[in-house]
Design a protein that fits this description.
The complex is a heterodimer of chains A (383) and B (211).
Chain A (H helix, E strand, L loop, with lengths): L15 E5 L6 E2 L5 E2 L2 E8 L9 E5 L26 E2 L4 E2 L4 E5 L14 E2 L4 E2 L9 H14 L7 E5 L1 H12 L7 E4 L7 H15 L16 H15 L2 H7 L18 H14 L4 H13 L3 E2 L2 E2 L10 E7 L7 H14 L2 E7 L13 H18 L2
Parallel strand pairs in A: 5-8, 5-11, 6-7, 11-12, 12-15, 15-16
Antiparallel strand pairs in A: 1-4, 2-3, 4-8, 9-10, 13-14
Chain B lengths: L13 H9 L5 E5 L5 H10 L2 E6 L2 H9 L3 E4 L2 H4 L8 E7 L8 H11 E9 L4 H10 L23 H10 L2 E12 L4 E5 L3 H4 L2 E8 L2
Parallel strand pairs in B: 1-2, 1-4, 2-3, 4-5
Antiparallel strand pairs in B: 5-8, 6-7, 6-8
The chains are: A alpha/beta (383), B alpha/beta (211).
Chain lengths: 383, 211
């Protein structure tokens, strides 16, 4: 960074790919199917130290990608999705930590998913893509971390569906977890969260252009996908956020007396829907929402987070007051399970009016928590 | 043991200075209502203590986490319930007992999750409170209990004598005790050795279960 010129130079990052599970060594998925080869798109920032002890894995939320921070090209107008959190001198300080972020299995931003070519047919998988779970996504990420020669991650950070992956890592590979920051997340979807996901899926599947998932040589279910995204956005905000952001304000001077949309909140949702269609695959939405719905860290009334290996492991759990998709009680359940382990768990419910989206918004409180927590872990365990 | 208990502890409230001096190096400590984390930070830096705090205020809890402490934001009355038996060597309840609706149940919980519990509380038996009540016939207002009857969070009126009687009744053993007289907003003080219930502003006791 060179701030002397009045404007910081772009931190350039490169999207890389790791391919594994080539037949006949396909990865066996939770559903029993075998999948391979698998490619994960990933990006890294910062430098891995000689001891390989400063690696932080960032897990993205449902519609995210590997481009967590920095710019892919010098003339890129948009930085990565968490650029306010990750970068030189930022809370996840890439001058000090080696940051890895990979696109999830089932996604559509460079990793293997339903829009990838099925080697058996030479055409996109569509619904022939096997059902993947959060556990499968994490299993694939472990291949990448092994490939990078890292045996223990200094920390894992993720919000929402990314937080589910953090928790899944803790349950499945606890010995590789140096510390963890699950944000605005849950150990299992509530009926309400499943309900919204199902409405989103139905919106896609009801679009005739969806064609049972086989639409890659046509226009695709643009309308269904846009509606699915609109529903998502309603769940990411909150009553107070919407009141503040839109109220009942109109986006035109007078009522139209038709159905083209009068209110600002309507045009916002239309805009978000349209924008999403250009960057996201409808089938990926179906698979990933289903994976999130299936995610459940409880077995027979016991939490899979209760594990002796996690004793003493530092955790920072945070929720947001206005998040009604993953309300605070769900984060407290995580804390409660970790306390039984003797994990070194900190928790904060952050005052924020922006609903579930708050974890992605610039927030001084969250910045302070994450930077203080990571700083402590770094000094206690990496120096 | 006059003025300040230990010069390097001078920036902490005096009752916390006494409490800190009672905690063995390397212990596992739970500090209930830990505020901005002064006691925990001192114990971590100087006594290699692995500490956890519980604090209701978002702002204070966040400040603790930012300075590298382990703190849970929440109501400790509820938060203490998840821990297994004897999870902590010491549980600290400083200047909060007088605000608890169910002190007996709380102490039972604390003596379950901690091998020992250190309690400090303002002594209502102090002469200034007695004198005010005698002379004015009105609820006393002191440096330690600075509220009016209608806005006080201190719903339990306890003296050192009352508390010791309570412990006898409920079969809790006092491992260690001290009475202190504080001044300068409770940041300085001295140990009271005679006529404790009359002369001390605070009582501090280390407790454990009998049997």
């Amino acid at each position: 960074m060179n701030s002397a010129e009045g404007q910081a130079a772009h931190v350039l990052v490169e999207r890389k790919f790791h391919t594994f599970a080539d037949p006949p060594g396909e990865m066996v998925l939770d559903c029993g199917a075998r999948l391979g080869p698998i490619t994960l798109a990933y990006e890294t920032l910062g430098r891995l130290n000689a001891e390989r002890s400063n690696a932080i894995l960032i897990l993205h939320a449902f519609s995210g990608d590997s481009h967590v921070a920095g710019y892919l090209r010098e003339d890129d107008g948009q930085p990565g999705w968490w650029d306010n959190m990750v970068g030189p001198g930022k809370p996840v300080d890439t001058d000090r930590y080696f940051v890895i972020c990979s696109n999830i299995l089932g996604g559509c931003s460079g990793s293997t998913g339903p829009s990838s070519v099925n080697p058996a047919t030479g055409k996109p998988y569509g619904l022939a893509f096997p059902m993947v779970t959060i556990k499968d996504m994490v299993r694939a990420q472990k291949h990448l971390i092994d490939h990078l020669g890292i045996t223990k991650l200094m920390s894992l950070v993720g919000g929402s569906v990314g937080g589910m992956q953090v928790l899944r890592w803790c349950a499945d590979y606890p010995a590789m977890v140096g510390s963890a920051i699950p944000l605005a997340t849950t150990t299992r979807h509530s009926a309400q969260a499943i309900a919204f996901n199902e409405v989103a899926r139905q919106a896609i599947m009801a679009d005739p252009e969806w064609n049972n998932g086989d639409y890659y040589d046509g226009p695709g279910p643009a309308h269904g996908l846009a509606v699915a995204r609109m529903i998502g956005h309603v769940t990411y905000l909150s009553d107070s956020a919407m009141r503040e952001k839109f109220g009942r304000r109109l986006h035109r001077s007078n009522l139209s007396f038709d159905f083209t949309g009068d209110f600002q909140v309507e045009s916002y949702l239309h805009h978000q829907g349209k924008k999403f269609v250009n960057r996201f695959d409808a089938n990926s939405l179906l698979y990933i929402t289903k994976a999130a719905d299936y995610f459940d860290l409880e077995r027979d009334g016991a939490s899979l987070l209760v594990n002796e290996t996690l004793a003493g492991v530092p955790f920072l759990v945070a929720s947001f007051t206005s998040d009604w998709l993953y309300p605070t009680y769900q984060s407290r359940n995580i804390v409660s399970a970790l306390k039984k382990n003797g994990s070194d768990v900190s928790f904060c419910e952050i005052e924020a009016q922006w609903g579930h989206d708050a974890f992605l918004m610039p927030n001084m409180r969250l910045d302070g928590l994450i930077s203080g927590f990571l700083d402590r872990v770094y000094h206690e365990r990496c120096l | 043991m006059n003025a300040v208990y230990n010069p390097e502890l001078g920036s902490m409230r005096f009752d916390l200075q006494v409490i800190a001096s009672w905690i063995e190096p390397g212990s596992r400590v739970l500090d209930l209502g830990c505020g901005a984390g002064d006691l925990l930070d001192y114990l971590k830096q100087n006594r290699q203590v692995s500490g956890t705090g519980i604090e209701l205020s978002e702002e204070k809890a966040a400040r603790c986490i930012e300075r590298g402490l382990t703190v849970l934001q929440g109501d400790f009355r509820r938060e203490v319930r998840d821990y297994p038996e004897a999870r902590f060597d010491v549980v600290v309840l400083s200047q909060t007992l007088q605000q608890i609706t169910d002190p007996k149940e709380l102490l039972t919980d604390l003596l379950w999750i901690g091998k020992r519990v250190i309690v400090s509380f303002p002594n209502f038996g102090h002469w200034s409170a007695r004198l005010q009540f005698l002379l004015t016939g009105m609820a006393p207002i002191t440096d330690q209990l600075p509220y009016e009857w209608y806005n006080t969070p201190n719903i339990r009126v306890i003296s050192i004598k009352d508390f010791k009687r309570f412990l006898r009744l409920f079969g809790v053993r006092i491992v260690r005790e001290v009475a202190i007289n504080t001044h300068h907003h409770d940041y300085k003080g001295n140990i009271v050795r005679t006529l404790k219930n009359l002369r001390a502003t605070y009582g501090i006791m280390m407790l454990e279960r009998v049997g």
